[in-house]
Design goal:
With about 190 residues, this protein is an all-beta fold. It folds into two domains: about 5-85, Thrombin, subunit H, CATH 2.40.10; about 90-194, 6 Propeller (Neuraminidase). It has no helices and 17 strands. The chain has strands spanning about 15-20, 20-25, 30-35, 40-45, 50-55, 60-65, 70-75, 80-85, 90-95, 100-105, 105-110, 115-120, 130, 140-150, 160-170, 175-180, 185-190. The strands form four sheets. It has a five-stranded antiparallel beta sheet with strand order 13-14-15-16-17, with no helix packed on it. A four-stranded antiparallel beta sheet has the order 1-2-3-4, with no helix packed on it. It has a four-stranded antiparallel beta sheet with strand order 5-6-7-8, with no helix packed on it. The N and C termini lie far apart (about 50 Å).
Length: about 190
């Protein structure tokens, strides 16, 4: 029978996920706690701002106030995927074939499966990033709308405009719709075929 017990964490929990059978808790102080035959702690960042599990469920992608993007595995090992210097990593996203995206200041970055990193600059701060459910396409939430990029090509981005501060972004599971969360306590959606 499973045991339910309280877990006393020292800071605000940014994200929680399972990597295999091991629960992980990513905290704002930069630590990641995992319950793997006892309570273990990984000192991942000097302040953690974003965390999401990879699509394969084997790693946790984290972004920190130290400018680093890390992949943490279930055994506690870490590897650096990107570094934005002194800029905070405010959002991360896991994509197909091991691709990873992150936001730092006015730029969105995508690390492709071959390790190549592409930067997409924007006129205002990038608030969130998300991968489309099919293909290599990312969406960026920004002030006054969203931007769609195809990182594997050199094509022009698609700009989706709507006045206001867009702070979160996601695709529908079928990829036909894009929805942003707004600072104004609202959601805005676009039908991408239009």
């Amino acid at each position: 029978m499973p045991t339910v017990a309280p877990l006393d964490l020292s800071a605000f929990c940014i994200a929680t996920c399972w990597l295999g059978d091991v629960p992980h808790f990513a905290l704002a102080d930069g630590t990641v706690h995992r319950l793997d035959h006892g309570h273990k702690t990984i000192e991942a960042h000097d302040g953690l701002a974003a965390a999401r599990p990879a699509l394969d469920g084997k790693t946790l992608i984290t972004g920190g106030e130290d400018g680093k993007v890390l992949a943490l595995s279930a055994d506690g090992s870490t590897s650096e995927l990107g570094n934005a210097g002194s800029k905070w990593i405010t959002a991360v996203a896991a994509g197909p074939q091991g691709a990873v995206a992150w936001a730092a200041g006015r730029s969105a970055f995508v690390r492709l499966s071959d390790g190549k990193v592409k930067e997409f600059q924007h006129p205002r701060t990038v608030e969130d990033v998300a991968f489309a459910p099919k293909g290599m396409r990312i969406a960026v939430a920004r002030y006054n709308g969203a931007t769609l990029h195809f990182p594997a090509t050199e094509g022009k981005p698609a700009e989706l405009e709507w006045a206001g501060a867009h702070t979160g972004i996601t695709f529908s599971p079928d990829g036909q719709f894009l929805v942003t969360a707004m600072q104004e306590n609202a959601l805005h959606g676009w039908k991408l075929a239009d």
